[in-house]
Design goal:
The protein is an alpha/beta fold and 243 residues long. 21% of the residues lie in helices and 13% in strands. The protein has 4 helices and 6 strands; from the N terminus they run E-E-E-H-E-H-E-H-E-H. The structure holds 2-acetamido-2-deoxy-beta-D-glucopyranose (2 copies). One 2-acetamido-2-deoxy-beta-D-glucopyranose binds next to loops.
Length: 243
C-alpha cells in the first residue's frame, strides 16, 4: 500500500490572479470538506493560509501525483502526450499535474521538486519514507517525524517558509490503523509547529473524503464529472490518475 503525501509550500504573498472556471473539463468537487480543528483529529482545515491568489510562488514536493517531469524546480516540458508514451512530458498523467493547475488559476510561479515513485527520491530525505509497503508499516511513525522535521527545516533560513498546504492522499479508499495513525501524527505535528513558530500557517486536505466519494457509491465518480474511476492515461505502465 502506498502512503503518499503531497506537500506544498507557499512562499511570498503578494500576487494577482484570475480564475478560469472552464479549465477543468467540467470536473468539480461533489463532496464537501469535513471541517475540524488543527488541534484535534485529522480534518480539512485552513489554519491561517491566505487566499491562494495572494501567493506568488508555490514550491511543491511530493510523488508522482505532483511530479511535473523535471523534479528540480525548473522549467517543465509541455504537458502533451506523444504516443506510445502515455506520460505527458514525463508526468504520470495525460496533462498538467494538480499543482500546475493551481499555478494557472492563481498566476503563481510553480517550482516543482516532486519525484515520481518517492522511494527513488533524490531531493528530500523524507520522501524516502512516504511510499511504504504494507509490510513496512513500522516505518510510518518515523516517516511522520521526518515530514515534520523537514517542514521545520523549511521554516528556517534561507527558505523562511511560513505557509504550508499539506494534502494527504494515502489510502485511495482503503484505510488502515497504522495509516490513520501516521496521518494523525503529522497533523498533530503541524499543530505543534503552529504553536511554536511565529507566523506559521498550515492548511490540510484529507483526501479520504474525495477518495470515498469518487471510488465509492456516495456520490460516485459521475457526480464529479468523471467518465470512469480508472486511469486517464492509456498505458498500463502508468497508474491511476484522475485528479
Ligand atoms: C507505455 O509507455 C512506455 C513509456 O512509458 C512505452 O515505452 C511503451 O511502449 C508503452 N506501451 C504501450 C503498450 O503503448
Ligand atoms: C505535540 O506536542 C505535544 C506537547 O508538547 C507532544 O506531547 C507531542 O508529542 C507532539 N506531537 C507531535 C506529533 O509532534
Amino acid at each position: 500500500m502506498q502512503r503518499i503525501i503531497i506537500l506544498t509550500i507557499f512562499i511570498n504573498i503578494i500576487g494577482a490572479l484570475r480564475f478560469d472556471n472552464q479549465h477543468n473539463d467540467g470536473i468539480h468537487l461533489a463532496v464537501g470538506p469535513q471541517c475540524g480543528r488543527l488541534s484535534g483529529t485529522v480534518a480539512d482545515v485552513n489554519a491561517g493560509l491566505l487566499p491562494l491568489q495572494r501567493y506568488r510562488t508555490i514550491v511543491a514536493f511530493g510523488d508522482s501525483y505532483t511530479d511535473g517531469g523535471t523534479r528540480d524546480g525548473g522549467l517543465r516540458a509541455p504537458a502533451i502526450v506523444i504516443p506510445p508514451n502515455p506520460k505527458a512530458g514525463g508526468r504520470t498523467t495525460n496533462g498538467p499535474v494538480w499543482v500546475k493547475d493551481i499555478g494557472s488559476d492563481t498566476g503563481a510561479l510553480v517550482k516543482d521538486y516532486a519525484v515520481e515513485y518517492s522511494s527513488e527520491s533524490r531531493t528530500f530525505r523524507y520522501e524516502t519514507y512516504l511510499s511504504v509497503p504494507a509490510d513496512e508499516v513500522g516505518n510510518l511513525p518515523k516517516a511522520a517525524n521526518t515530514i515534520i522535521e523537514q517542514v521545520t527545516l523549511l521554516t528556517r533560513p534561507p527558505t523562511n517558509a511560513r505557509s504550508f498546504l499539506v494534502l494527504d492522499d494515502y489510502g485511495r479508499g482503503t484505510e488502515s490503523v497504522a495509516g490513520d495513525a501516521f496521518k494523525q501524527q503529522y497533523y498533530t505535528g503541524l499543530y505543534n509547529l503552529s504553536r511554536t513558530i511565529p507566523g506559521f500557517k498550515a492548511a490540510f486536505v484529507d483526501f479520504k473524503t474525495i477518495w470515498n466519494g469518487v471510488l465509492g457509491p456516495d456520490p460516485g465518480y459521475k457526480a464529479f464529472g468523471y467518465a470512469s474511476d480508472g486511469a486517464c492515461t492509456l498505458n498500463s505502465s502508468t497508474h491511476y490518475w484522475f485528479l
